[in-house]
Design brief:
With 313 residues, the chain is an alpha+beta fold. It has a domain at 163-310. The protein has helices at 10-19, 69-72, 78-88, 101-135, 151-157, 222-234, 276-297, and strands spanning 165-166, 172-173, 196-197, 202-203, 212-221, 239-243, 257-268, 307-310. The strands form three sheets. A four-stranded antiparallel beta sheet has the order 6-7-5-8. The chain has a two-stranded antiparallel ribbon with strand order 1-2. Strands 3-4 form a two-stranded antiparallel ribbon. Strand 3 (196-197) and strand 4 form a beta hairpin.
Length: 313
């Protein structure tokens, strides 16, 4: 009879196959027995069962069935998930302030408007200040514009017989009516070059009082000075013209320019500060009439730049 050697228990084989399904079954290890068998049909006694052990799951085993990171994330690697998360995150700026293009251009336009407005305001203020500072150093030298002459009306006016009068200084003058039919203007008729021009004619004596301050209006050519004196006298403002004599030979007998003085207000030296309100009011009245004279008769000055001068005989 052939000897039959006992192999490993069936329970151990089943447990090993459950942990390693791919592993082929282990070959039984032959064992030699020192005891001869007496019965060929005898079945060997089973080995005592070992105590039950805790069943090990496939994930806890250290075999080839251990799970990987790729298997647990559905086929997406950790690097791909990190890149996708970075793309989803909003871009953070350093300051945290966002500015759209329309707002940016609007701010630039507002800034330009403010700069231009500030420059224009500063230029206007500086120009006016400079004009005021220079006006006290520059005398009024008006530009004389030619006056239109109507020969028909002039001839009609000259048909009136002129009346010969004499002034207080004894100089004879022939008054001629103005073009507007107002008070006559003095005409040269053998007068002295130093005679004072008034609304009623030329006179040798100066009507001003020594030591008094009088308002100086402007220096005008003879025709303009005569028309201004006549116009101001018609509106209640007494004006005289003092000749500006030229030292050159040949022109001393014919002064071409006269400086106009107002006799409407004379201020003594000791009353200069006390009469400040009267001074300003008189200058305002003269400037108002001067603007009318310049507008209505195309005068050479509006008498807005005036100054006070003390008369010393």
């Amino acid at each position: 009879m052939t000897d039959r050697r006992s192999g490993p228990p069936l329970f151990d084989l089943m447990r090993e196959r459950g942990e390693r399904p791919q592993t082929p079954p282990a070959q039984p290890t032959p064992k030699t027995s020192s005891e001869p068998r007496t019965d060929a049909t005898a079945v060997p006694a089973p080995a005592p069962a070992s105590p039950p052990e805790a069943e090990v799951s496939p994930r806890q085993s250290q075999g080839d069935t251990r799970s990987t990171a790729w298997d647990s994330t559905g086929g997406v690697s950790r690097a791909e998930r990190s890149a996708a998360a970075m793309l989803d995150e909003p871009v953070q700026t350093d300051t945290g302030i966002t500015l759209s293009v329309p707002k940016f251009y609007t701010m630039i336009a507002v800034a330009l408007v403010l700069v231009v407005g500030a420059w224009a305001g500063g230029y206007r203020i500086g120009f006016n200040d400079g004009k005021d500072e220079m006006s006290q150093f520059v005398r009024d030298q008006p530009v004389v514009s030619p006056q239109p002459k109507n020969q028909d009306s002039t001839l009609a006016e000259r048909t009136t017989q002129p009346e010969r009068t004499s002034n207080q200084g004894g100089s004879a003058t022939n008054p001629v009516a103005d073009s507007d039919g107002g008070t006559s203007r003095p005409v040269d008729s053998g007068r002295s070059p130093s005679d004072i021009m008034t609304a009623s004619g030329f006179r040798a004596e100066d009507p001003r009082t020594a030591g008094m301050n009088y308002l100086v209006l402007a220096t005008l050519p003879t025709e303009q000075a005569s028309d201004a004196i006549s116009f101001m006298n018609q509106n209640g403002m007494t004006i005289i013209g003092v000749p500006q004599l030229d030292s050159r030979a040949g022109s001393a007998n014919n002064p071409s320019r006269y400086t106009l003085y107002s006799l409407g207000l004379a201020i003594p030296g000791n009353r200069w500060s006390a009469m400040s309100n009267q001074r300003l009011e008189h200058q305002r009245q003269v400037a108002t009439l001067g603007a009318r004279w310049q507008r209505e008769r195309r005068g050479g000055s509006d008498f807005s730049q005036t100054n006070w001068e003390k008369y010393e005989h």
